[in-house]
Structure formats: C-alpha cells, structure tokens
Amino acid sequence: MATKAFAPAKINLTLHVTGQRVDGYHLLDSLVVFADVGDRLQFTPGPELSISVTGEHAAGVPADSRNLVWKAAQAAGWTGHIDLNKVLPHGGGIGGGSSDAAATLWALSGQGVNIPEDLPVSLGADVPVCMAAQATRMQGIGDRLTSVSLPNLPAVLVNPGIPVPTSSVFEALARRDNLPMPIDIPEFENAGACAEWLRDQRNDLEIPAMGIAREIEFALDSLRLTTRALLARMSGSGSTCFALYPTMKDAHFAAYEIGAAYPDWWCRAVQLN
Q1: What is the pLDDT of residue 109?
Q2: Hey, which residues are catalytic here?
Q3: Looking at the structure, do residues 67 and 166 belong to the same domain, yes or no?
Q4: Alpha carbon 150 to its chain's center
Q5: What pLDDT score was predicted for residue 1?
Q6: Which of 29, 190, 197, 248 is 20 to 30 A away from residue 117, measured at CA?
Q7: pLDDT of residue 208
Q8: C-alpha distances out from residue 63 to 27, 167, 186, 206, Å
Q9: Which residues have CB under 8 Å from 14's CB, separation 6+?
C-alpha cells in the first residue's frame, strides 16, 4: 500500500556561523521555521528501489542513488518505488533535499521500518531539523535542536532562478567564529514583534552568497520595496529570499507585486511556523 508524505520548505530566519570543527563541519546557531509549501512524495513498496521525479523543478534532480531520498531509503533498508513531485527549487537554501530525506524517513517509519537514531544527521546537517518540521533552534552541526514557540509568520518566498552551491558560499565566508544568537529567544506577540527582534540577528552567509550571485541582492531589494514588508533576508546558503508581513493579506499582495514585476521568478505567499 502506498504512503504519501509532505516535505515543507525549511526557512532559516537566522543563520549564525559560530565556528568550524577540525573535521570541517561548521558550527551553527540558527532559528528555523517551515512553510506550508513543499515537495510531495509517495512510497510504494516493491522488490527494487527506484525513483521518478516530476514537477516544476524536476529538471536537474537525479533519479538515482545520487538523490538524498534514494540514500535515505537505501540506508533504512527499504525497497520500492518513490514518486517525488519537486515543487521547491533545488540549490535554493530552503532544504529541499534534506526535507525530502526527512519526509522519507518519517514515511518509512510509518510503514514499520526501523530508522537508526544516527541516520538523519548522517544524511546531512539539515535532516534532523527537517524531521522536527516545526519552529526550532538548531545548534552545533545540526544535532542540537530546541523547540521554539513562535507566532504564525506571513511571508513571501522568492527565488530568482539561480542555484547557489552551499560549498562555494562557505568557502567565500570571511569569518567562521561569529557571535551566536542571544541565549534566550523571547516569546513574540505577533509577526511585527518577531521581525523587530530578527533585525538584530543575521544570516552570515548572505554577503558571501551575494558575491557569488548578485541576483540575491536584487531579490532582497525587491522584497524590501513591497508594501508593508517588515524584514527581508536570505534563507540558508541562498538563493531563496524571504520577507515577513503583518498579515497573510499583505503577503499575498506582495507576492502579486513581485510576480507582476518578475514573472520568471519563483514566488510564493506562505505561512511560516
């Protein structure tokens, strides 16, 4: 019997790079939320492992053992066919592959497959937080997770269509020993209060990513100019950017503004939490 799963977009509201281990892994302090838009997967048990990729961003996504979904299923010892509907742009800093892998592990555990405790982080630093799929403070190499209470955050996601390799962004990072977030994250009454606090935080990868793809800076400037935008920032290692708004009505209007001005961009009004 087939099992379906949803893999939401992961948004880094903050991303502070606080160090680097001797094995090369970067230490992070990041406030992560998830959107109500994402990829969709279906798992049908069978004698052999196979995958098909469809959807608006299927181009360039491998349908073999290079795919993180394949690696997750294989590591869990599951066989069958996986249908992956790719809604999220890949190489966009919103955890598409990691969220797909996390959704795979959740779906297979629902089919009775035993998932080893160390499997998620072995697949990638973002996979454990994507398995949580809720507002979370992510620290260390992605292995220290703390649930956070946040209000619903109306937002617009924009991707100018330029994939940015994560490795290239980290290589361009000037400092790897930046300050973490404050020890305590306050409780916020609404999106406006949250955005005000976020203005004092950072995404340390934003400047190096803009040096690789100037389109990111253009996307951020365009978001800041939308009506009632509270804050605009890049997510993850780019190139997807987001802006926060007081209400979903404001977010939908801003998405219309962006879509009318830049019809070739991927643009979605979403709710984050």
Answers
A1: 95
A2: 10, 126
A3: no
A4: 17
A5: 81
A6: 29
A7: 97
A8: 31, 22, 43, 30
A9: 29, 30, 31, 181, 198, 201, 202, 203
| Residues in the chain where the model's pLDDT stays below 50 | none
Domain with 84 in it: 3-146
User: Would strands 50-54 and 266-272 be described as parallel, antiparallel, or unpaired?
Assistant: unpaired
Q: Which two tokens stand for residue 259?
A: 């879509």
Q: Which of 247, 74, 202 is nearest to 269 (CA)?
A: 247
* Residues 126 and 225 grouped into a single domain: no
Residues 35, 154 within the same domain? no
pLDDT computed for residue 70 by the predictor = 98
Question: Within this chain, do residues 97 and 141 fall inside the same structural domain, yes or no?
Answer: yes
- CATH number for the domain harbouring residue 59: 3.30.230.10
User: For the whole model, what pTM was predicted?
Assistant: 0.96
| Biggest CA-to-CA distance, the chain | 53
Q: Burial, 55: exposed, middle or buried (Cβ in 10 Å; 0-12, 13-18, 19+)?
A: middle
Task: Name the domain boundary from 111, 146, 181.
Answer: 146
Residue 205: give its domain's CATH number.
Answer: 3.30.70.890
